[in-house]
Amino acid sequence: MGPDSAPGPAVPWQKVLWERQPFPDNYVDQRFLEELRRNEGVRQYRYWSVVKEAGFVGQQLSCVALFITLWLYMEQGLLSPEMLLLTSLVCALLGYGLHQVLTSQIEPGCEPRTRLADLQSAAIFLSFTFGFSPVLKTLTESVSTDTVYAMSAVMLLAHLVSFPYAQPSPPGSLSLNAALFASVCLASRLPGALHTFAMLSCALLVFALWPCLLQRLRENAPNQFTGVCVGMCIGGVGGLGTQSLGGAMLLAIALGSVTLLCPLLLVRLQRHKDNIHGPWDEAEIHEDLSRFLH
Amino acid sequence: MVLKIFFPQCCNRADSGLLVGRWISGHESAVVLAVIHYPFIPGQVKQYVQQMQTRSGVELSVLGSWSLPKEGQEGMESFLRDLSTIFPQKRWLQISRQMGKTGFICNVLNRDHDGESAQKVKRKKKHEDVKGDEGEEDKEEEEEEEKVIFIHYEQRKVMMSQLHPIENGLQDPKTDSPSELRQMFQTVAQSQPLFFMDKYDDGPLKSTHWQSEGREASIIVELLKQASVPLCLLVTWLLSLWTWICNIRIFSLYPFCFLSSKLSTCVQLSYRTEHMRTLSSPRPAAGHTQFMRKANIFVSFLVDVALGMLLISWLYRDNHISMLANTLVPAADHVAKQLEELLQWLMGAPAGLKMNRALDQVLGRFFLYHIHLWISYIHLMSPFIEGIFWYGGLSACLGLTFALSLLSDMVALLTFHIYCFYVYGARLYCLKIYGLSSLWRLFRGKKWNVLRQRVDSCSYDLDQLFIGTLLFTILLFLLPTTALYYLVFTLLRLVVVLFQGVLHLSVDFINSFPLFAVGLRVCRFYRLAEGVKFRVLCDEPGTALHLLMEINPLKVSTVVQTYRTPTYSCYPKDSWAALVKKLFVGELIYPWRHKTTKTD
């Protein structure tokens, strides 16, 4: 019986398998694709809101650039470790105050960390970093500089890729670890143990604490958040510009493409979206890859 | 149905008489064991058979008659037929052979038909018998429907041989009874009392079997049997003394216990004690397996002691001991110097590897100091080394295995510095590997869930992440240095372990090799049978089959496998992959934990 042979009208076709019906297996009636739905639950993006969100990515990029700039200054001896430490301390205190202010604004229901715990964490950071800085200083002595640079670059890239941009407040393990690894590598190239200590403290500030503060800012003061992002981007480009113009240009291009061009592409390409849904199971191909291993 | 008659070759030329043997139940076969000659009194024969049956445990019976008429003796047919009424049997065999024609005639009388004995006659005529008893070619002229196959067997060999695989009498009664062949072998082996009566006996009966010309015995064996009783008593007394010493409480304390389990001399001593205990037990060996085990142990012990004596005779001649002692200290010095050079090389830039200089220097100096300590120790010991050798050499009179075990222990003690280096290196490396693997999980934001035995994701605190990453970086950059030290010292350690493994293997070989069984296989191959093969003696059409049963000897490899004295090396060992994994992870490897011996 072929699919063309007309069925008797007496027996209506049912979409069931357990009954024997006078239809071929591949028979479908007119109701086929009736239940097809397209683009269900698709959000329509507006350009400027996307740009605003992408600002976070841009500012993280420029954070990395800023850190590299600081390291360059330290390596060339243009910035003394004491100065950096002092600046970091002031920034940390200011940031901590701001963080406290922003936290006290919101709900008191969820239990905040006590001051003592914060102090304990800070003591642990500082003591460990200070204690290990001589070890870290000699750690990569025999490894060639190129290897260290390559490793740092890969790790910073991994940090940027794996950074949890949507919810950065408890920092993602992989991104933070990659950034810290890279900063340890870079810091071990600096001339003295104090340099290493200052650099690591700075890395902690930039990669671990700054995203937390920024998240608070994004939640509680969206307007200021945009301003801070723009400021960070400009600061990153400007800072890198004092060291290498080419790097600054590249960073500017990258920032422009991430914050302006990519959202444009997203909004443009949105209308080509064609997602189909229906009351069927989607076909999934489970290729057995294990046979290629033998 | 085919009637199989197992007929001993030694009875081919026997005088006329009664066939004594056994019907194998369940099979159409009879085993002829002996011929009891005329003249006899039937009552005495019945009594004798009864007596033999109780002594051997075999269901013996009179199977029939055998006649080999001398010149002029004719007309016994009716007499023979009458005999069957004296010894009432279900079946009565009348086998006869004529002297002139060397013919075989077999009559089977069945008593099935009540009272009236039906007679079935077989007649076989022997053709020209050239080789006498050995290769008979029989021709059978069949006249009745029941076929008879004669299977000639050598009684002596069959009695002494042991059919493999061995069944120790613990057979499940529900399963099938043993095979026909096995039953036949058992019958012949168990009817040993039947073969004790020879022609010099003064009894009222005369019989023919393999020992009828005189019993086989060796005067040396008898003397040894006599001598073994007081010897066993002495050994038992010594053993009890030795066991008492070993059981003193001080030896069960921790350090003694630990040491004695690690020193191969002590291990060998305990094995030897076990062996001697087996040998000197007053009970006779029950069963073939235990007998072979005892004999194997005894022969290995003798060979071991003989080899040890050879070693002693070489060692104490021409001042070999002092020569050895004098070469030992310079050798140890040389090894230490080589090690120092190796360490100096490692402290530089070995093979152009990028090592962490600070750690490298620390490790190198630590090991150098260790070598320095070791050398002073050796020099302190050097005056006593010759004495140690002299007294240690005496242990060889207990056997070569003791000397080898002592050598292994001495090697272990003399290379203690290498062992220490290895342990330090392995511990450090192991610590790093484990630390790195768990910190790598932290690096990816995962953790090991002990309860579920899997890796779960986990959100760490900021400070945990920070310290973990710091440690991870440090460990990662220090790993190559540690790994190199570990690698070098592991290789050194492997050389020592390999040497010790070879010594242990040879000791184990001497301990466990079944010399007696192999000797039996070589000299008396029929003692260990794996089965039988039949050679056709007569294959002409119209004649019945005459087969010669020959014993198939056991394969030598099977002999070794079956009779190997069980020792530690018989147990399954770790595979190579497991060993490599252990080495990679940095777990310690030892030669005395015999599961992980590197050789073999």
Automatic annotation (TrEMBL), chain A:
Pathway: Glycolipid biosynthesis; glycosylphosphatidylinositol-anchor biosynthesis. GO terms for cellular component: glycosylphosphatidylinositol-N-acetylglucosaminyltransferase (GPI-GnT) complex. It is a multi-pass membrane protein. InterPro entries: Plno_GlcNAc_GPI2 (IPR009450). It comes from the Eukaryota. Keywords: GPI-anchor biosynthesis, Membrane, Transmembrane, Transmembrane helix. PANTHER family: PHOSPHATIDYLINOSITOL GLYCAN, CLASS C, PHOSPHATIDYLINOSITOL N-ACETYLGLUCOSAMINYLTRANSFERASE SUBUNIT C. This is Phosphatidylinositol glycan anchor biosynthesis, class C. It comes from Echeneis naucrates. The lineage of its organism: Eukaryota, Metazoa, Chordata, Craniata, Vertebrata.
From TrEMBL, chain B:
The chain crosses the membrane at residues 227-245, 297-316, 362-381, 388-415, 421-443, 464-488, 494-518. GO terms for cellular component: endoplasmic reticulum; membrane. Coiled coil: none annotated. Signal peptide: none annotated. Residues 116-145 are annotated as: Disordered. GO terms for biological process: GPI anchor biosynthetic process. Pfam families: Gpi1. Residues 134-145 have a biased composition (Acidic residues). Keywords: Membrane, Transmembrane, Transmembrane helix. It comes from the Eukaryota. PANTHER family: PHOSPHATIDYLINOSITOL N-ACETYLGLUCOSAMINYLTRANSFERASE SUBUNIT Q, PHOSPHATIDYLINOSITOL N-ACETYLGLUCOSAMINYLTRANSFERASE SUBUNIT Q-RELATED. This is Phosphatidylinositol N-acetylglucosaminyltransferase subunit Q-like. It comes from Echeneis naucrates. The lineage of its organism: Eukaryota, Metazoa, Chordata, Craniata, Vertebrata.
